[in-house]
Amino acid sequence: MLDVTEAPTEAQFEFITFSAGDQSFCLEITQIREIRRWTPVTKLPHTPDDVLGVMNLRGAVIPIFDLSARFGLGETVDNERNVVIVAAGGGTTIGLLVESVSEILSVAKSAIQETPDIKSEAARQAILGVISVGENMVRVVNLDAVLDTEGSSV
Amino acid sequence: MSTKVLAIDDSRTIRNLLRVSLEGAGFEYHSACDGVEGVEQFSEVEPDVVITDINMPNMDGFGVIENLRSGPNRTTVPIIVLTTESGPDLKARAREAGATGWIVKPFDDASLVSVLRRLTGHVV
Amino acid sequence: MSNSSIRDTFFEECEELLEALVEGLAAMEENASDMEVVNAVFRAVHSIKGGAGAFALDRLVNFAHTFETVMDKVRSKQLDVDEQLMMLFHRSGDQLADLVEAARDGREPNAESEAAILKELGAYLDDAENEEELAFDAAPLAFDAAPMAIDLPEAEAEPPGEPEQRRFDIRFRPSPALYANGHEPLLLFDALAELGTLSVIADLSRLPEFDSFDPEDAVIDWRLTLQTSEDETVLHEVFEFVDALCELEIEVSEEPAESLPADLPEPADPIAAAPPPPDPAVPAALTTEPQGPAQKPAKQSPPRDEPRGPRPTLRVDLDRVDRLINTVGELIINQAMISQRIEELELPAVAHLTNELEAYKLLARDIQEGVMAIRAQPVKPLFQRMSRIVREAAEATGKKVKLVTVGDSTEVDKTVIERLADPLTHMVRNAVDHGLERPDKRSELGKDPAGSIRLSASHRSGSVFIEIADDGAGLNRTRILEKAIEKGLVSPEAELSEQEIDNLLFLPGFSTASEVSNLSGRGVGMDVVKNAVAALGGRVSIASTPGMGTTFTIVLPLTLAVMDGFVISIADQTMVIPIASIIETIRPNPRDLHCIGTDGEVISVRGAYVPIVDVARNLGLSGEGADSSGVLLLVSTEGQGLTALRVGAIHDQRQVVIKSLESNYGAIAGVSAATILGDGKIALILDPDELVKLTPAALFLPPAPPPKPELRHA
């Protein structure tokens, strides 16, 4: 499921974990460009609720998604700790508003389990797998599914 | 102090080639992209040797040679013509104007450098 | 700089030279007796030849040489330029461009036309010139292999020994002019020494008394003896450039090599030496002294000629420019933030910070403007290339075509120019091939036998408009429809509007040419053009009138171009609207406003009723009616004609950088792009054409199914 099959089995992968809609998620660190404080964005007309608008990232216009809303978990509640995770893949850069960033997680590939068999195909596509950390389950976000703005907002 | 060469040629390609050859050989390289600029540069740079093209806008190579030999600069530094032409008439004209030598493009790095070294009497 | 990057710059330079060539030929067409123009053309060809020689591009050198030789005859007034020769020059220019491209891309040039043109050019040259050509052909031109044809002392000596050694006695008396021309006898002797064994004797008998010594006079005679296997001509070559500057006698002595110059006549006061220099003091004094004048900085530089050829340019990696553009954006934001913070501090006026802050702001803006202008380039080179396409196409089809270009100074982002070349080429070919009628047919119709193709570029509504218009027969809609039905592209029952029929041309696999010409039948259709334009975020449309001609319009977004815009507010959001699209701003007088139906509204503008479009409502922004007391912007739109856009207020007018929304997100209806304002915030740039279209869609069509992704139900 993970596109890391070529790596040696016990190679360590680093993830940044964060919470959105009271659930725990993570993204592989190489996909993350930076983490920024939340600043007001410019709204876009004719866009779904999870598209908060666009932000100026050193001269580039990048769209900001509310990750919680995007996963159908309701709008992110305004909070001092809200941050925007700037992630990039396939030539596209986007920002994801999350409630807060928690920690860096370093795990072996074998620690990543397949997404449990859940009903929603879409949810399965958005989540690459899960990692268990203590009593928590951290969902590995499939950035490609999030980047695919065509499929979700047009 | 290294030997100063002033190259006057309207072709960027030729200027680039000369720069690479001559700087590589340790010369101090200066260039101008036409005759008028060349003559101006001459007073500024005070080169030890001048390389000039013939066909150039604003002032051609003959103009450059005449100017450098009999104009206010009135110099005796070697002036080498670097051109694609090879007609005897043109050569005679250049000689009359006061050229020191004539090299036909395309030029060969090593020979050009050895000629320049010989003409300037410096081992740069 | 590596050799390959020099090669790259050579081809870049060639592009410029070819541009100058095309421009020069066009100017020659106007006035072939303007020697400035002829010279410029000659030099362009000549410079290509010179550079090509350095890279051993023999074929290119050869062609350029022939071209140049004919041009030189025009230059020296031995040849008059008539229509036929002018045409040949144009074709030669095209061929030269082909050869340059072929050399750059490592492909085969068009040999057939090359041979034909060379032959035609050759016809203008006499035998001697053609012969010189052959000699030139045969000369080795390879960059590394070429023995340098040099008339200076040649360094490479033949392997000594084997051939018979001979002795030359040389008398050499330099004139003062020899020194004045930068020669140095010792260097000539060096060269001779490399040919064999040299002995030199300086004859100082002419040396004057100390009092009458003139440092610029040449007073030393030299006697030289050279033992060499070289031919006498080689010796003369050493002296070629000093020939007229000295007295020179060369005699062959048949004596055996062993007898060294003991039998030479004794000079009065011999200073014998081999090799030179004999006494550095004397020649040094003589040779360095004349250099005196050169040491004095000459104050009188020659008058500067006004036009100095093309302005110097600098080639920079695009990535660097883009990085710079982004960084400058940050600078502007930083500046705005500092200003704001300082304002918040409410410092006493004595702090005098205001002036410095204002200066900082202006400087930052200047930098931004300067940087933004770097990426934009005029479409001129692109249009110039089309003149060649038109000529080729005209030749291939036997049609007469005039190309008119309009607005070639219109600036477009560099990437757009590069990627538009192919679609434009195809459309121009099509226009000649399919659009224009044959000359006889045109005459019959009372039209000028020469057809016209008009290529124009302009900035409108924040977009780049490029039009290719011909004055041909117009689209044959009956034929197009028949063909489309025949090919199964549309059903026979379909009732299509004219516009819809025209658009069938863009369907993949559509081709209308009923007779296969040289140009069509290449398997490239308008669908390829459409895709290429769409890939640039643009669109193509067709307008055609039977008997009058067809116009293709390419509308492209100004991805990174700069645009003049009004900064406006729409329902309290700051946005930008291109000034180019605005005809007039109106502060409406309630008397002029009229309602139609429940929510239709019009304004009377000089007696005409113009529909009002509420921008906030069309964009679906909350606070509808927020701008009801706002300003109206009169625009002329593509689909709807005159329309008044209602906006909240106009705040400012300024140049903005256009930032694509599509690169990271996607297209948004009614919005063409975004820009970054001075405070670092993003403002959307409105697209009036699309904006007004949103009205009927919203009013009359059922709303599109809510685009809720399934993800939401996770």
Oligomer: heterotrimer
Proportion of residues in β-strands of chain C: 15-25%
Name of the CATH class of the largest domain in chain C: Alpha Beta
- Gyration radius of chain B (Cα, Å) is 13 Å
The H-level CATH homologous superfamily of the largest domain in chain C, spelled out, is Histidine kinase-like ATPase, C-terminal domain
**Total tally of structural domains of chain C:** 5
CATH third-level topology of the largest domain in chain C: Heat Shock Protein 90
Residue fraction in strands of chain B: 15-25%
User: Distance N terminus to C terminus of chain B?
Assistant: 8 Å
Number of domains of chain B: 1
N-to-C terminal Cα separation of chain C, in Å?
A: 58 Å
Secondary structure class of chain B reads alpha/beta
Inertia-based shape of chain B: globular
> How many strands in all of chain B?
5
CATH class of chain B: Alpha Beta
Query: Which residues of chain B form runs of ≥5 with pLDDT under 50?
Result: none
**What is the annotated CATH architecture of the largest domain in chain C?**
2-Layer Sandwich
Keywords:
heterotrimer, B: 124 residues, alpha/beta, Rossmann fold, five-stranded parallel sheet, 5 helices, 5 strands, globular, C: 714 residues, alpha+beta, six-stranded mixed sheet, five-stranded antiparallel sheet, 23 strands, flat
Summarize the structure.
Chain A has 154 residues and is mainly β. Helix content of chain A is 13%, strand content 47%. Chain B contains five helices and five strands; from the N terminus they run βαβαβαβαβα.
Itemize the secondary structure elements and their pairings.
The complex is a heterotrimer of chains A (154), B (124) and C (714).
Chain A: E1 12-20, E2 23-28, E3 32-37, E4 51-57, E5 60-66, H1 67-70, E6 83-89, E7 92-98, E8 100-108, E9 112-113, H2 121-126, E10 127-133, E11 136-141, H3 143-147, H4 149-153
Parallel strand pairs in A: 2-11, 5-7
Antiparallel strand pairs in A: 1-2, 1-8, 3-6, 4-5, 6-7, 9-10, 10-11
Chain B: E1 4-8, H1 12-24, E2 28-32, H2 35-45, E3 49-52, H3 61-70, E4 79-83, H4 88-97, E5 101-104, H5 109-120
Parallel strand pairs in B: 1-2, 1-3, 3-4, 4-5
Chain C: H1 3-30, H2 35-54, H3 58-75, H4 83-105, H5 111-122, H6 127-138, E1 166-174, H7 176-180, H8 185-193, E2 196-203, E3 221-228, H9 232-238, E4 246-253, E5 271-273, H10 281-288, H11 292-295, H12 318-345, H13 353-375, E6 376-378, H14 380-397, E7 401-406, E8 411-413, H15 414-435, H16 439-444, E9 451-460, E10 463-470, H17 477-486, H18 498-503, H19 526-535, E11 539-545, E12 549-557, E13 562-570, E14 573-578, E15 582-586, E16 593-596, E17 600-605, E18 608-614, H20 615-618, E19 631-637, E20 641-647, E21 649-657, E22 671-676, E23 682-686, H21 688-700
